[in-house]
Design goal:
By secondary structure, the protein is α+β, with helices and mostly antiparallel strands. The chain folds into 2 domains: 194 residues, no CATH class; 183 residues, no CATH class. It has 20 helices and 13 strands. The strands form 4 sheets. It has a 5-stranded mixed β-sheet with strand order 11-8-9-12-13. It has a 4-stranded antiparallel β-sheet with strand order 1-3-2-10. Strands 4-7 form a two-stranded antiparallel sheet. α15 packs across α18 and α16 runs antiparallel to α19. It starts with a strand and ends with a helix. About 1% of the residues have low confidence. The protein binds zinc ion. Zinc ion (ZN) binds next to β7 and α5. Zinc ion binds next to β7 and α5.
Amino acid sequence: MSITLYTPATGFPDLEAKIAYGLARVGIEAFGMEKVAMHDEGGFYRIVIDIDENESGKLDKTFNLLCRRLLSSSYIPFNTPGIAGRSAESISVSQDEIFSLDSYKSIIFSAENRRTENICRHGNSFIGNIIGITVATSYHHKRDGIDTSIQQNVPRRPTNPKNVCKVCALLSLFGTWYASFIFNIADREVIAIPIPKGKVNGIKLQEIYTLQHQIRKNWINQEIPQVIIPLIFLSKIPSSADILEGFDLFIAVFSRQQGYHVDGLFLVPVEHYLDFIRQTPYNIATIDNMLRRGAYSALQELNKAIYNQDKTSLPIFARLYVQETSTNNFTNLLYTETRKYLLREVAMISSEIIENSALGSLARTLRYFIREKKYGYADDIRNARKESKVFESTVAKMLREGRLRLEQKKMIHLPTDEEMKEVFRMANADFEDTKTALVILAFSFAPRAEEETNEIIEEVQNA
Ligand SMILES: [Zn+2]
């Protein structure tokens, strides 16, 4: 036997998820996490509580208890991004208010489509729907034509703000504080809500709850481009990788300028990010390096590469990373582990190319010039097209300069003729992958420790 509760299918992904989390939280408080599961039904959620129907009275009791315990003052609403001043007062619960969750026990099919109708279509008492409850409230209000009103035979979009029932508003607050992440980036407030895909059990919900306590303490004190927020956010909680598997992330960025303003709103799939973060701690260190040095162009390029699995962004990222994270007396290169991940998992280049010793030998020469901050050869190789023969002529030019350095008694490594033949054969067979691998290998620390030591000695000698 079990009880099923339904969210109202409002059409707002953040509100729906928060109501679902709120209902689940009530279920978990009343009956324990093992009894509760949440199912994504595409547009609404089903919360199944594994109890006898005659126990359902305990749900209402628990809900009212939680409301009085947590929401009788305006403290929580006040500290929720998107809720300010008078709205916070309107959400607090007074001593004599008693609520029921009965309206969530069935799916509401019919909408009256009146202006006065709550967006959740529940008949309970209502409050004005605000940004803190439904972020899209700050955008033009329209539910895909459903609530278009006809005036003088012309369909119009209603401009008056809609209401939501108070029970949904309270559940949404519980949901916010139970399973979403609130943090600050410089002077902006950010809320990230995991949007479930498929089934989520109570144990998973408790994990999210634990995870969000870590992020609450985490402030990012610098302005960062909005597009990299999901990557930065996830890299700050590496343990999120397993927990947030199977969720999308709904992210809203707020600023305060006489009340709240929504600066950005995005719904992102996170699996590629999670994969990047999970693979090796060096990937997280790579992000930290860029944040520390304010290497935002490199970060945006890395974001493009990971999010879109776009291999053409990778060589540009490698170049920007080295340029933006190096100092005057130290050339910072990509970690071997990160380089391996990017070449294998993002660029999907075969190990015959990545681990080819002839290509590694030529990359070592190219790295010599990169350490001198001479990026021209690497840039020309990156931009080369197969037909243009720029690849061949750039490599020839670089080797000429290399031989000159050798005559000047510099410790530069040069590939053998055999190795060069091998590289050109590879480039002929698979031009894009060969040049991508070459450039990224050159922008990375040498794979073997002894070679690395040699190169650092060279760098010191050349300085
Ligand atoms: Zn409602």
